[in-house]
Structure formats: structure tokens, C-alpha cells
Design brief:
The protein is α/β, with parallel strands linked by helices. It has one domain: Nucleotidyltransferase, domain 5 (2-Layer Sandwich), CATH 3.30.420. 34% of the residues lie in helices and 19% in strands. Strands 1, 2, 3, 4, 5 and 6 form a 6-stranded mixed beta sheet that branches. It starts with a strand and ends with a strand.
Length: 200
């Protein structure tokens, strides 16, 4: 059966960090939450992955981040995995798959892998076993109304039923929004870019 993975991240942020490309001193895009879905070629969800991650350089979440995502300091302190453990598990989930994102989230994964390895931490799976693809350009071209939308709002922009419980800026909810958009566009006749389906 052919399957593929879609994923989304929530990472540390502060007021105006996006506009400034996280250029302020000490501001790093440390992953705090990973969400991913494994989909079949008919866009059915067959498996979920979700993890909270404890940031290292900035272990105290900003008020801005918590208000944006709903992720609390208590939840991260209590349930968060180390970056190496979460990244290893996530990359294992992605093994032998095409892994699609709505934006360049794979760059953030790469940054976090690099920081973990620089700290001497072992990550048990690597990038070479998966094929990461940013399909936001494809999706925005097929449905131009989505261009200004973040991934968690795709379902709304396309006039679709709410795809899952929760709200935008929760990584797993955002994955369901992304999946609903892909399914809707492909059911309407669009074709995913080359390389999005691999035998799993």
C-alpha cells in the first residue's frame, strides 16, 4: 500500500519573531510540538504521531507562544520529550516515506537535529530514510485563495467541515487541516506533485 506522511511543527516564538526571521539574539526555532499523519493514497489517515518537546536554549516558553498555541509550560515540563528522543521518534515515523509540509518545516527539523548533535546527543533515525517536500507552492497554485492562510486555516479558506477537534497552531490539528485540503483538491481533480507517494 502506498502511503505518505504530512507533518507540522510548533516552535518557540516571540512577538515579531516571524517578521524578523528569528534574528533577535537568543531567539531560536526550537521545536515544542510535532504532529504528523500517515495517509494512504485515498487520503485516509492510518496513523498519527504527536509529541511535546522540551526546548533547551529557551526552556521557558514565552507568553506569546503559549497564547498562540495553547501549549503550557506545565505540559511541556511534565510531558515533553528531549529533542533527541522526539526527533528520533518522528524520523522513525517518517522512514521510507515522502514527508509533506505546508512550508519549509523540514528546515526547522534540520536545525533542531543539528543543535541536538552539537550537544552530543544521539538521534536514532536520520533524514536519508525519508523524502521531505514542501508542497505549499503546489497547493497555493491550485487554490490561490489559500496563499495568505496558515496551515491550520486551510479547511476554513476552502469551505470545508472542521476536520478534527482543536484549533489552529496545534500541530496535530494543523495536520488534519492540511490533510483535508489535500483530499479536497485531489478529489476535485488535482494531482499531487511527483514523488509524493512511495510504497510503504
Amino acid at each position: 500500500m502506498s502511503t505518505f506522511v504530512i507533518f507540522d511543527l510548533e516552535f518557540t516564538s516571540w512577538p515579531k519573531a516571524l517578521e524578523q526571521d528569528w534574528a533577535a539574539p537568543g531567539q531560536l526555532r526550537e521545536i515544542v510540538q510535532i504532529g504528523a499523519l500517515r495517509l494512504t493514497e485515498d487520503y485516509s489517515v492510518v496513523e498519527e504521531y504527536e509529541a511535546l518537546v522540551r526546548p533547551v536554549a529557551n526552556p521557558q516558553l514565552s507568553t506569546y507562544f503559549t497564547e498562540l498555541t495553547g501549549i503550557t509550560q506545565e505540559a511541556v515540563d511534565q510531558d515533553g520529550l528531549s529533542p533527541a528522543a522526539a526527533l528520533g521518534d518522528f524520523l522513525g515515523f517518517c522512514r521510507d516515506q515522502s514527508v509533506l509540509s505546508y512550508g519549509n518545516d523540514m528546515v526547522v527539523v534540520g536545525e533542531n537535529v543539528g543543535w541536538a548533535r552539537a550537544r552530543g546527543e544521539e538521534i536514532k533515525n536520520g533524514f536519508l530514510d525519508a523524502s521531505f517536500l514542501n508542497i505549499r507552492p503546489w497547493l497555493n497554485t491550485i487554490a490561490p485563495a489559500t496563499r495568505p492562510a496558515n496551515v491550520g486555516r486551510l479547511w476554513q479558506v476552502l469551505g470545508l467541515p472542521k476536520p478534527a477537534a482543536g484549533s489552529e497552531h496545534s500541530a496535530l490539528f494543523d495536520c488534519y487541516s492540511f490533510a483535508a485540503a489535500i483530499r479536497h483538491l485531489c478529489d476535485a481533480g488535482a494531482t499531487l506533485p511527483e514523488g509524493c507517494l512511495r510504497s510503504g
